[in-house]
């Protein structure tokens, strides 16, 4: 579950960091 959360955070970061 934690791994999925990290992937989710990275996904958001990629879009939010744009």
Automatic annotation (TrEMBL):
Protein name: Uncharacterized protein
Organism name: Anguilla anguilla (European freshwater eel)
């Amino acid at each position: 579950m934690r791994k999925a959360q990290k992937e989710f955070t990275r996904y958001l970061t990629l879009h939010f960091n744009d």
